[in-house]
Specification:
Blueprint lengths: L17 H15 L15 H11 L11 E6 L2 H22 L2 H7 L10 H4 L2 E8 L1 E4 L2 E4 L3 H18 L3 E2 L8 H6 L6 E10 L15 H4 L4
Antiparallel strand pairs: 1-2, 2-6, 3-4, 5-6
């Protein structure tokens, strides 16, 4: 590293004694275990600075070669939200009636969902996440690496930040999602990755009574 032609800076992250690490990790799990996906939103607006902060948090995620191959589009304009809902419901209607298998539809039954997506208009803001397949520098294409993995990690950071701010969100993936690039007039190097309604929960919010897999089903020690 001493011979590198690129600049490095000293880094001293917070570290903790073992007992404090256990306490902090347990507390964070308990907190995050209360996070739920929500489909019922209050129309109350979100302070713009909150959305800026959660997106900046998402941008701290690691990415292949630090290319940061993501764009976060915040949609709060009612007309645009309506246009997105109409386009999404068109695709969802097709999916629920023709594309999804019987087993897929059965797996969705506990969530009581269908092709109607009113939350796309009711939520005060939508965050549309795009992955940048490549970038351009003065008309020259430059490669991005591990794009899906990088953007997926950033979305995880984003969802945690949204919850930490006292908001709720939904990870929505109408398929195909090309209409999002068209409606938002995104460049050809950007492809839709995730559509996230975000806001405060409605007063009558209900969520399915689900149970997360126990540790022994998701962790293997070697």
């Amino acid at each position: 590293m001493a011979d590198s032609k690129h600049k490095f800076i000293s880094y001293h992250p917070h570290t903790y004694p073992p007992d404090e690490m256990v306490r902090r990790s347990a507390a964070y799990f308990t907190y995050m275990d209360q996070r739920r996906t929500v489909r019922q939103f209050s129309p109350d607006p979100i302070p713009p600075k909150v959305l800026e902060h959660v997106i900046r948090t998402a941008s701290t995620a690691p990415s292949g070669a630090h290319k940061q191959p993501w764009t976060f589009c915040v949609v709060s304009d009612p007309a645009l939200k309506k246009e997105i809902r109409v386009a999404a419901e068109k695709e969802e209607h097709e999916s629920y009636h023709h594309r999804m298998s019987e087993s897929w539809l059965r797996d969705l039954e506990p969530f009581a969902t269908d092709w109607h997506k009113p939350f796309l208009e009711k939520a005060p803001s939508l965050i549309v996440v795009f992955k940048r397949i490549y970038d351009e520098d003065d008309g020259t294409k430059t490669n991005n690496y591990y794009v899906a993995e990088s953007v997926g990690i950033a979305c995880g950071f984003l969802l945690a930040a949204i919850y930490h701010a006292g908001l709720v969100a939904l990870t929505h993936t109408p398929s195909p999602m090309k209409f999002l690039a068209s409606i938002l007039n995104r460049p050809s190097n950007e492809k839709p990755f995730l559509l996230i309604p975000v806001g405060l929960p409605a007063d009558d919010t209900m969520v399915p009574d689900l149970v997360r897999k126990p540790l022994q089903e998701i962790m293997v020690r070697y």
